[in-house]
């Protein structure tokens, strides 16, 4: 490789670089960044590409445009919620027994649970048929029997997933069901 006076070079196998000051019979004298003059054979040197920032020359206008671009405040993008999801109506089904019958007097616990599960199944089928994507079943906390039975019911559907509903809105006593919609043929 041939070098010219003024070239930026690095020394192979050492952490040294500098500027070529003199070339004489295969020997190259370089001035290091610390100001030392050192002699190396041409085979020990490699030409540096002028890629470091301090070696680049910027016009005043290009430098000022870069600085002004960096000074522009960045706008933080809000995560986009699809309009379809944002306005998706959520069907709420309150399964508390006092919401389903005028008076639970004379009903056994088995009768109440059966009515609640039948109501849940009917409302879920309704949501699937009407293409409603989200249904929240409010079941309350209690002993957890109704919640367990609901999970068993929802587990029999292969086009739904279910999870605890929004705690801030419903507390612990609600389960949200998401219904995957299949595309209807035209």
What layout of secondary structure does this protein have?
Elements: E1 8-11, E2 17-24, E3 27-32, E4 37-41, E5 45-47, H1 60-71, H2 83-86, E6 90-94, H3 97-100, H4 109-129, E7 134-138, H5 145-155, E8 160-164, H6 167-170, E9 174-179
Parallel strand pairs: 6-7
Antiparallel strand pairs: 1-2, 1-5, 2-3, 3-4, 7-9, 8-9
Helix pairs in contact: 4-5
Notes on the structure:
The protein is of the alpha+beta class and 186 residues long. It has six helices and nine strands. The chain has helices at residues 60-71, 83-86, 97-100, 109-129, 145-155, 167-170, and strands at 8-11, 17-24, 27-32, 37-41, 45-47, 90-94, 134-138, 160-164, 174-179. The strands form two sheets. It has a five-stranded antiparallel β-sheet, with no helix packed on it. A four-stranded mixed β-sheet has the order 6-7-9-8, with helices on one face. Strand 3 and strand 4 form a beta hairpin. Helix 4 runs parallel beside helix 5. The radius of gyration is 38 Å and the shape is rod-shaped. The mean pLDDT is 82.
* DSSP helix fraction: 25-40%
| Quaternary state of the chains | single chain
Question: What is the tally of helical segments?
Answer: 6
Report the order of strands and helices: EEEEEHHEHHEHEHE
Low-confidence stretches: none
CA-based gyration radius: 38 Å
Q: Largest sheet, if any? A: 5 strands, antiparallel
Alpha-carbon distance between the two ends: 72 Å
Give the overall shape. rod-shaped
Give the structural class: alpha+beta
State mean pLDDT (0 to 100 scale): 82
The strands making up the biggest β-sheet line up spatially as 4-3-2-1-5
Number of strands: 9
As a percent range, the share of strand residues is 25-35%
